[in-house]
Amino acid sequence: MLTDMNAFQYLPLAQVELEDLPPEVVDELPTDVVDQIKDGLLDKIPEDVVSELPQSIQDKIPEGLLEAAASNPAFTRVLLVIGVLAVIGFVFGVVKSAVKWMLYSAIVGVAAWYFFFQV
Predict the structure, then answer these.
(1) What DSSP state is assigned to residue 54?
(2) pTM score, two decimals?
(3) In 3D, which of 9, 51, 10 has the Cα closest to residue 29?
(4) Rounded to an integer, what distance in angstroms lies between the CA atom of residue 37 and that of residue 94?
(5) Are 11 and 27 a contacting pair, CB within 8 Å?
(6) What are the φ and ψ backbone dihedral angles of 115, each rounded to 5 degrees?
(7) Least enclosed by CB within 10 Å: which of 5, 46, 72, 82?
(8) pLDDT, tens digit, for every residue of 16-65?
């Protein structure tokens, strides 16, 4: 059992630095994106921002600084499997609950009819 929490090594994320980008790219970026890069809030340039830039500017951005929707296909598949299992579990839970309610209602109904006709 691991008891020393300092045994883990934390690696810093590679963040976008304005010095890593050519000046013409920085000039074309929206000011809010530039401010977020300066503040260290962005680790990659968002895909929608890149798509709005001219193609000549897009070609000058290093590949490591571009955010892609499916940048890690294995992680995407894992999330997809987890999502599908969660939906299946939810539907199973709802059906199981409905079946229990039907059985309970049937038992109460049979008991009511039984006692109704006893009188």
Answers:
(1) -
(2) 0.40
(3) 51
(4) 46
(5) no
(6) -70, -30
(7) 5
(8) 566 667 777 777 778 887 788 777 777 777 777 777 777 777 676 666 65
